[in-house]
Write a structure and sequence with these properties.
Length: 432
């Protein structure tokens, strides 16, 4: 079978190809094509787990499976997030990709389009299918074919220094969500004596702004079945950038220096008391727990909400099966096993990420009961869904060449909101 090396071309262009098109010639078997159940086989599973606790949880899952399934042994191979895309391009082109592949949805979509991934639709259990929201399934579906099982998700959350709240006489918010306007008011109350109410590392602002826009009913793109998209930048799309800009330059409650820094750059300031609140990926909870000074008191605030609620976009971690695997059915059975509630909860706890299934979130809530921040982070998992930009074919190019520089200029107060709108819109139209 010949496959067009679209993924390789995307690499050469310096961007991933995201598409919602049908698979391009993959060899995924149908539900009736199963292997001899008595044949002893070994399948390779390339994992990208890197936290010690997550590596241990993954190894335990594999060991448990191997003990229960002598006819289907899993050979665990360690990969790296740093080079997984390049590696997969080479492996798929050479016909030696792992049977089971750990990655993320936004990266695997292009490989699925080119036919490198098996359709898992016939093999995943009904229980699993029903326990993951339709919005999350959308991130791993092309032309009604499932190219991966979604495992873990990240949300953007607000971390709070509870001692700073107490000192300022500000009540720590509780409830199902926290409105952006309330976050802004709290940040003003916490700003005093050289300390800012909020620090937010937005050196790479496009992904957070576009994922959080869903809470303001902002989608940026309308995407058709072939991944062709039209752009519209209106109030919903601009609401979060405008709030950030106002907090930095009108309220002076958000340190503008942090807008040029990474989340990791800003974290020490939060731990050192410079910022009463800190926005970042939910996974940073692990770093806070590991590196906070003795006696540092913190929590995670309720999910951030806009005019349309607390919805956020997400690109979940995934498990896929190579279309060239001779045992797609058995590989899919292992994925189903991996995603059992206790297993998925264990890897989620290790990474401080949110499981995609309701049962795993419940199991993780039980396992982490009383631990700082977990209840709020898990609550944010219920509102994560696909964002249209993830399916727009030319999104990576637009993001790198136009969106990120435009957002950075706006955050540095070099251009106004109308100029930002023009740059985002004209940039997209220029690459169509």
């Amino acid at each position: 079978m010949h496959r067009t090396p679209r993924a390789a071309m995307a690499l050469a262009a310096g961007a991933l190809l995201l598409t919602g098109c049908a698979f391009g010639g993959g060899q995924a078997p149908t539900a009736t094509e199963t292997t001899d159940p008595t044949e002893e086989v070994t399948l390779t599973f390339q994992s990208l787990a890197f936290q010690d606790a997550t590596i241990a949880a993954t190894e335990e899952i594999v060991d448990s499976w191997n003990a229960e399934h002598p006819e289907t042994q899993i050979d665990l191979v360690q990969g790296s997030w740093d080079n997984v895309h390049d590696q997969l391009v080479t492996q798929f082109q050479g016909g030696d990709a792992p049977d089971i592949i750990h990655n993320e949805a936004s990266d695997m979509a292009g490989f699925a389009h080119d036919g490198y991934l098996a359709d898992l639709t016939p093999f995943l259990s009904e229980e699993l299918r029903g326990d993951v929201s339709e919005g999350v399934w959308t991130t791993v579906t092309a032309n009604e074919q499932i190219f991966a099982a979604p495992t873990l998700m990240q949300s953007y959350v607000a971390f709070a220094n509870t001692a700073a709240f107490e000192e300022a006489g500000v009540e720590v918010p509780t409830g199902e969500s926290l409105a952006w306007e309330d976050l802004r008011s709290i940040a003003q109350e916490l700003t005093a004596d050289g300390s800012y109410g909020l620090g937010w590392g937005l050196k790479s602002p496009t992904a957070p702004f576009m994922n959080l826009a869903l809470g303001e009913d902002g989608t940026f793109f309308e995407v058709d079945a072939e991944g062709e998209a039209t752009i519209e930048v209106g109030e919903g799309e601009l609401a979060i950038p405008q709030t950030v800009h106002a907090m930095a330059y009108e309220d002076q409650s958000l340190d503008p220096v942090t807008l040029t820094q990474t989340g990791g750059d800003v974290l020490p300031g939060f731990l050192g008391g410079t910022y009463g609140m800190y926005i970042g990926g939910s996974y940073l909870a692990q770093q806070i727990a590991d590196t906070a000074p003795e006696g540092f008191e913190w929590t995670v605030l309720p999910p951030l909400a806009g005019s349309a609620g607390a919805a956020q976009g997400t690109s979940p971690q995934t498990l896929s099966v190579s279309a060239d695997s001779e045992h797609v059915d058995r590989a899919a059975a292992f994925i189903d096993y991996y995603m059992q509630a206790e297993n998925l909860a264990a890897v989620g706890e290790g990474d401080c990420l949110i499981p995609t299934t309701g049962e795993a979130r419940d199991a993780l809530a039980t396992a982490t009961e009383g631990q700082t921040g977990w209840a709020e982070m898990l609550a944010s998992g219920a509102v994560l869904e696909a964002a249209p930009f993830q399916l727009a074919v030319n999104y990576p190019q637009w993001k790198d060449q136009y969106a990120t520089p435009a957002f950075q200029q706006y955050l540095s107060n070099s251009i106004d909101i109308d100029q930002l709108t023009t740059q985002l819109t004209d940039g997209w139209e220029s690459i169509q």
